[in-house]
Task: structure prediction
Amino acid sequence: MSERIIIVGTGETAELAYEYFTHDSIYEVKGFAVDKEFRQRDDLCGLPVIDTEDLAVKYPSSNFKAFVALGAGKLNRSRRVMYLRMKSLGYSLVSYISSKAFIWRNVEFGENCFVLENNVLQPFTKIGNNVTLWSGNHVGHRSFIGDHCFISSHCVISGFCTIGESSFLGVNCTLEDNVVLGTDNFIGAGALIQKNTDERSLYQRNQTEISKVDTHRLFRLK
Result:
């Protein structure tokens, strides 16, 4: 028998979570919840949307589990706050781990993790609570990702790395072996990190410079 869950959130991440949980998990989504001030609809994916203020009454934690489906807004603060709020209400928070991810047998996960397809997690890696691993990342052996982190797509985290709490890794960034990221780091798309970082560090590669020759001139279009 499927376990019943409520998805907290109504944005794109919430709709994706509904798809993944519905078609690739043991859980049955029974509805969505969002704070009253942000609720703009009464249903989503054919299921009811309720105010989080009414969640404990309509979907009590004794009968339902929850999944917080929020993105990386405010350096993961929005997701962290809601995660802690659901915990304070007594909800057990479930994780989604794609059947199409490669997860070695001794990898450890916390609660409310969202691990999408084509992630590779090597032996002895540890993933904290409320962590998102978007599609196609590599997490090397004995690396640790702290609570509330968001790892975008195609990031390479080499072996023996530590990712500080609430950090964000942009697409295609690379961490060499034994790197320790401080808490609240923002690693921009395509960045290469070779040394330990301080907390609240920001690494951002410059955008590729636009050519002085436009596409029509390049391809001799008229």
